Structures are given as structure tokens and as C-alpha cells.
Amino acid sequence: MSDSPASPLTTADGVPLKISLRRAVRRSKLKAFLLVSPLLLFLVIAFIMPIGEMLWRSVDNPEVSTHLSRTVDALEGWDRESLPGEEVFAALAEDLREGQQARNLGLLSSRLNYEKSGMRSAITRSARGLGALEPPYREALIELNAHWGDLDTWKLIERESSPLTLSYYLAAVDRQLTPDGEIVRAPETQRLHVNLFWRTLWMSLVITGLTLLLGYPIAFLLASLPLRYSNLLMILVLLPFWTSLLVRTTTWIAILQSQGVLNDMMVALGVIADEARWQMIHNKTGTIVAMTHILLPFMILPLYSVMKTIPPSYMRAARSLGGRPFLCFRRVYFPLTIPGIAAGGILVFILSIGYYITPALVGGQSGRFITNYIAYHMQTSLNWGLAAAIASILLFVVVVFYLVFNRIIGVDKVKLG
Amino acid sequence: MNESLQQERHDSAREVPSDTPPPFARFINVQKSYDGIELVVKGFDLDIHKGEFVTLLGPSGSGKTTCLMMMAGFETPTHGQILLKGNPINDLPPHKRGIGMVFQNYALFPHMSVSENLAFPLEVRHLSKSEIKQKVARALAMVRLEDFGDRRPAQLSGGQQQRVALARALVFEPELVLMDEPLGALDKNLREEMQYEIKRIHADLGVSMIYVTHDQTEALTMSDRIAVFNDGVVQQLAAPETLYEAPENAFVANFIGENNRLYGEVTEMVGEKCLVRLDSGETVQAKPVAAGGIGARTTLSLRPERVGIVLDSQSPGFDNCFHAEVREVIYLGDHLRTRVSVCGNDEFILKTPNAQGHSSLRPGQSVEIGWSSSDCRALDA
Known about the structure:
The complex is a heterodimer of chains A (417) and B (381). With 417 residues, chain A is an all-alpha fold. Chain A folds into three domains: 44 residues, no CATH class; 103 residues, no CATH class; 221 residues, MetI-like (MetI-like fold). In chain A, 67% of the residues lie in helices and 1% in strands. In chain A, a hairpin with a 5-residue loop joins strand 1 and strand 2. Chain B folds into two domains: 174 residues, P-loop containing nucleotide triphosphate hydrolases (Rossmann fold, 3-Layer(aba) Sandwich), CATH 3.40.50; 122 residues, CATH 2.40.50.100. Chain B has a six-stranded mixed beta sheet with strand order 6-7-8-3-9-10, sandwiched between helices. In chain B, strand 11 and strand 12 form a beta hairpin. In chain B, helix 3 packs across helix 4, helix 3 packs parallel to helix 5 and helix 5 runs parallel beside helix 6. Chain B starts with a helix and ends with a strand. The chains are: A mainly alpha (417), B alpha+beta (381). Chains A and B meet through helix 15 and helix 16 of A and loops of B.
């Protein structure tokens, strides 16, 4: 600090120190940036842009406003009390005719069908029947399909004409909008996602707990053995990393299925009867067992790196001060490993709530995760907006857990190896 | 340290072997091997009396820390017995021994405050809250850290951490405290300060202490008795002055203090003296200590401050006088350190007080040096 803060420090030739310093480091900053730029570019293209696109898709709502643009314009100023007038129906007929010629009514009909069942056939049938229709279109269209005489259909078209929508998010949490814009729970038979979110969360917690239970003693052993033994053990811990994920998962199928290794052994030993073989795969048990195994290294490594830094003299000191071994562990060793537990815990938990392949292969119906439904909506139902909304909620949950973790433990305390 | 205490210390050190109460802690012929091939400790015997300060001194790898760890219970003796107050404790786990211990790097629990660290041994003994509070306060006062109770160990300096470790080892009032190179991580000034601090606390509390160090100055300053270790064997067990003045073998003579060595062969025994013919041809009169019989090889050990320069007229009555050539003179203020070449030894050191006449020595100059045969100890080869 200079004595007089009013006059900034300068170099010998009178240039302010800050400016000359900035000049001096500019070159090295530029070099550093060039070095990381390939990775930065890759991340932007392969990571940030897809995530942005996903977030956009979860609220994007172009179908009605593009494919029914004339209808939407004609609906301007509609009183929402009675059916709209002839000019709106004429606009609808025009829109449908154009859509039929361009063969692009599919997206529109699916989009409206998510919100009101029967809309897909209403649109396709009306578009096909349009050729024979004569004005006035109002009566003719209602005649053709009763949905056009339903006030709710028109309320829906007006609502969904907005370019952004929350309905995917509502669907993702088993809610829907009534025609009058109120949020209500979906019919009982259609409630699916909230249960799946909860199942994903609690099964991830169970998996995290199991990896901790199994990993803690191993990590302790690794940290306390002499180097040549611990290196060997470390290779065994890392071995799963070098084996294909699919191989590991299918191996569990071979072990756990009802005609599998474990059941056969139990039957041979007389522990269970042949008819009463355990059902351990294609359900929650299968998912939990396989994922605990697969995620175990992610718990062991952070634990190990923390335990490695705890000198054995702490435990010795505690013993010499009169503590029984378990008490010394509880009061001295365990508290010092908490950063490792937290790091391993958050890592396994976050990996686990986003896990896809293993639950898909061994989860059956009851052991599936929310990620499996994201895939389902992406690949089978083709409701990408809903898939994006579910994925965005998952991303949000992960970020919240991370922030809570950072607040309580501090990410800077975490070492991964 | 006051004079009477110093005197007392000397007396107790001298009296130890005979007519004292049964020793407080004992090692009886203890051996230790880690790999089943080599013995790290080869037959260790030591009696520690109540209130005594015993130091295990030796180079690293000499087995001294292993002995300490066996007393603490972290290592099991391969052979032999360890007794505490007359009871064998070989199979007693560490937490039941009630021995305080100060570790090399203090081993203060980093997640507990200083007070919590001190309270730990009291809590595991189920003392009442008020009692714990009182004892912790007293222990903090003892090491003069009254205001530091709420700090974490990482917020303390090395010396303060050292004091806390000391307080923690003492707070539950053990009768025996073990210290494993406790001052090794401190700088020189702090180390000296802590030596006196530990000595003061030892005198105040009257606990027995076993102290492990490789620093001979530390051992000489603090101990009632010192066991000099080398190669798993105690080379000599004696009070500091005895170790310095009367080392029993060449290792002790070298390890404790500075030492000039001359090598030769015993040629004749004359009453209290022996004659040694050096390899360079001269004959020296020496005091036989551990020098075998006539014809045996021997190492003559001579403290630098016991060698004098014989000035022209006055001879201080040395019975060994030799012609030497000055190689180097180092001025150290109160004394001069002169390296000379004598009896074929180029590294022969003289420490002479900076008295008048001596400072005129110059390299290359010839001088007459001499020593008394009683200061020249003939030890093992």
C-alpha cells in the first residue's frame, strides 16, 4: 500500500502500474486462452448448447401459432363465453386445408392431443373431410366432428397459441390445466412422474447409503495398509472402471436371475425351495444391487483420499488418552472423514439419480428411474417437450443438491484422488 | 533452574541403582522384531523410578522410539516383559495403561478446540462437567495458554501447539508421561524455551517421564538419566555428566559431545594407566576404560576442551605432550576452536578459552599441546 492512495503507483517511465502490469500479462493470458479454446469450443457445442436446447424445448410451443395462424388471428377478441363466429371457422378450414396440402398437421394434432384427448382424430378427420365442405363452415365442421362444437376446444386453441407453455412442466409433475386455466392433478390413472421422481430419489439414497457402508471399511483398509498392498487393493477397486458397464450389469443378471448362480446355489444348499426362488432381478432389488456395485468406486476414492491425510497418530493419541477403540473412532477418526463422506455421497447420489442403463436393464417395471421415462418420451412417445421438462427438473434437483452441499461442506474441501 | 534442584537431580541420579523403592516402570530383557528376521531392539533393560526423567537418546533407527511405543502399548514386545507399578502390561491395551503421551507432531485433534482436546481424556473417564472445566482451566494455566481455549489447533503457533499437546498428556494426571521427539518440529530458540518449560512442569508435578530424542543437547539439559541407544542396544545408561565425562565406549564418546580420536594398540599396563602406541608411532599414556588387554586395538577419546596448549615456560602438568601444527583457527568469541595436526590426525580439535596469549595462533604455526592421561580414555576399537 502506498502512503498516499490519491496518486496511483507508476513505473519508472510514468505509466500507471496497473496498466503496465495488464500489458505484461496480456500475452500469457492470450496463450492460456488459446490452449483451452479447443476444449471450450467442444464444451459449448457438445454440452452447453444441447442443455440450452433442452431447456428451450421444455417451454417451446410453436405448433398452434404456426399451423393455425389464421384461426389464432381470427380468435382475437373472442369473448370465451360462446362458440366463435363463422369467420373463425372459415379461418380454421383454411388452415386445415393448407396443412393437409403441406402434410404437416401431425405435430399440431399430437400437441393438441396431449392436452385434450380426441383432438388428434378431430384434426385429421376434419382435414380429410374438408374437400367436400361448403360454407358456412361453422355448422359443417361441427357436423363433421363434435369437438369443434365444444367450447373447451376453442379455449385450448386460444391458450396454446402463446409461443411459450408451462404445460410440459405441469405434465412432468402430474398436473394439468383445466380449460379455464386452473392447475389440477391429473386423473389418478395418469399420475406417474411424481412417484417416479420420489422412487428415483429414495433408491438413490439407499444406493448412496449402501456404497458408504461397503466403501468406508475398504477405504480405511486402503489408507492404512502399507503402500505395496494398498496399490494392489486399489487396482481391485478400480477394476470395475476398466470393465464395460454393460458387462458388469449383465453379469448381475446372470447372478441374480431366478435360474441364476445365486438362486441355484441357495436351492442346492437347501436354503430355499426350488419353487420359491428369490426374485432379485428386474425389480428394485436388482437396480439397487447392480448400481451399488457400479458406483462403489466413486465412494471409495474420495473417502480414501481424505483418510490418507489423517495421520495414524490421531488415533494413537486418542487411545493413549484413555479412549476405547470404538469411542476413539467415533470422536476422532469419523469426524475427520466427514468431508470424504460428503464428497463421495454427493458424487454417488448425483450420478445415481441420473443413471439410465442399469435401471433400464435390470430394473424391470418396479425398479425404473425417472431417466428411463425421459428415454421413453424421447424414443417411444416422441413427446420431446415432456422429456425436456422432466430432464430440466432433474437438472434443477441436481443443482439444488450441489448448492446445498457446497453451502454445508464446501466444494473446495473435496478431493477426488 | 535453581541450584538446590540441580543438586537434588544429581544425587537422585547417582543413587538410582541401590537401595531405592521398587522401580515404577521396568523393561525386562525386552526384544522387538518387526519382520522376524532382524531385531530392532535387542535385550532392553531399564528401570524408571517415580518422578524420574529418563531420556532414550540415539540416532534414528536405533530402536528408541520402538521402546517408547512398546511402553505406550502401540507395539507388542516380541520377547521380555514390561512392568508398570510391578504389574506386567504386555497384554494391556493402550487405553487401559493410563500413560500420557506427547507425539512428534503433537497429534492434536484438528476438529476440536483446544479446550475440547484437553477435555477428551477427562470425558472418556466420565468426569463431571464442572470437574472437567476446572481441570482443563488448570492445565491451560500450567502451560500459560489461558486465553486460547476456544481456538482450533491450526490457529496456534508450533510452540503453542506443543504446549497444548503437553497439557493434554498431563491433564488426566498420569503418573508416567512419554514424549516422542516432542520438540523436533520447533525452531532452535523455541526448542530451548520448551526444554525449560517441560523441565519446570516435570519438577512441579513430579511425574515420571520417558523422553525420546536424537538431540544430545536436549538430552543433556533435561534428563536425570540418559540411555544411549545404538543398533537396538543400550550403549550406556547414566546421568548426563557421567555420559559426558566418562563414556564407556567409543560410540557414546562420539555421540555425546565433541571428541578427538586417536587409534592405536595397548602396549603396557602401568597401575591406573596404560601405554598406547599410536598407529603414527607415538606413545600415549591413557586411562584404560574398555580397552582389552595388552596387544588389543583401542580408540583413545579426548574432549577438545581438555587439551591444552603448552606455552613457553608454564606447563600445566600434562603427562602427554606432543608437537602439533596449527591448521585452522576459528574465532568463537569466548573461545577459540583450533584444528591442529598431531599424531597423524589432521582433524584434531582444541577448544581453548579466549585468554591472553592464545589468540595469537596462526595457521602453519608450530605449537606444543598436551593433555592429562586421566582425560584420555582408552575405549574399544
